[in-house]
Amino acid sequence: MEIIINGVTLEGDFMDADFVGPYEEATKKMQEKASASQGKKYNSFAESIREQCETVDEYFDDTFGPGTAAKVFAGAGHHLMIHLKAVEDLTTWAQGEKKKLNDFTNKYTQRQNAAIKRQQIQAQQQFIAAKNGGGKQGKH
Known about the structure:
Elements: E1 2-5, E2 8-11, H1 17-37, H2 45-64, H3 68-72, H4 80-131
Antiparallel strand pairs: 1-2
């Protein structure tokens, strides 16, 4: 599947474990780096921005392969909002893919549950009919 980030087409399939594994690991690594940087004293705001952009660069390289960040952020330098928007776009795409899978499985789970419920109702009706003599008793 294709996802476009900052005008760059990337390949990733959220239904493929070979893609999802690196994506999950990269996401975890990025979150850990973000948590570790909270409360950190920087010499300047610019230093903080550079570190955050470098973390996002690593995230894209870890997820899609080396060199991806250079393509996705070509000409963007260390522009924090461009980097954060790219993470948001990727996250939104991933959530959309998860929703597609959930909707698909729920559709069949609901059908299966409805079929089971129909079978249970039929079994109850047959039991009641048998208990009442099958409904074939006539009046004399």
